[in-house]
Amino acid sequence: MPSLRFLLCTIFFFSLLPACAQPRAPRDPGTLPLANSDAEKRILAVLEEARQAGKLYLSVPIADGRMLRLLTETVNAKQVVEIGTSTGYSGLWLCLALESTGGKLTTFEFDKERAATARKHFEQAGVASMVTLIEGDAHENVKRVKGPVDVVFIDADKEGYVDYLEKVLPLVRPGGLILAHNTQLGSVRDGYVKKVMADPSLETVIYNDGGGLGITVKKR
Ligand SMILES: C[S@@+](CC[C@H](N)C(=O)[O-])C[C@H]1O[C@@H](n2cnc3c(N)ncnc32)[C@H](O)[C@@H]1O
Predict the structure, then answer these.
(1) Which of 52, 63, 107, 183 has the CB geometry, 3.0–4.6 Å to 210, for a possible disulfide?
(2) pLDDT per position as a tens digit, 202-212
């Protein structure tokens, strides 16, 4: 017969198990991060206003916005190139990082109305001085960029990703990042993703908490 003490110890041990097995709840990647400065507060407020007001067009989800910011800050980016500004939503996420790295963003958009909204958002967020928005066809205009580029974010016409990659890759510094959105879409997966995965000078992983973000480092 097991002693009463043994029985009580066993019950106590098993009662602890569910708590130990419980994974620590991660912060919801779909919520905005906490602000640590007035500059961050201002940018986050515009991000939230734009979302609430529906002033977005095919913009990245918050999970990808946070990842864009984290990666850009991690590589201490001084020069970031974004292809596909839309209304400036992802640009604002990039600016959250550039506020602390002291870097600049060059972003490309061919839709006049969306470009005008993006300019407004950059003004409201107090980041207009760190952003150059170039209007027109990015396939042509991206040729004007001079390296070294620390981070490229590709999020325009999906069939154009390979062309953008070929044009910007020589400008990306060793250790720099090429980020590409919507990697789960057939045209991106079968063209761009295949190409970066097959290149031994690159290392690529796909982050899938948002809309599918290809994260590629140009090896040193
Ligand atoms: C998916 S949206 C970009 C979303 C934006 N990155 C964000 O998260 O807020 C794609 C944008 O690329 C623009 N675009 C598509 N093809 C383009 C081209 N060849 N040159 C410049 N902009 C282009 C579209 O007008 C559209 O606003």
Answers:
(1) 63
(2) 999 999 999 99
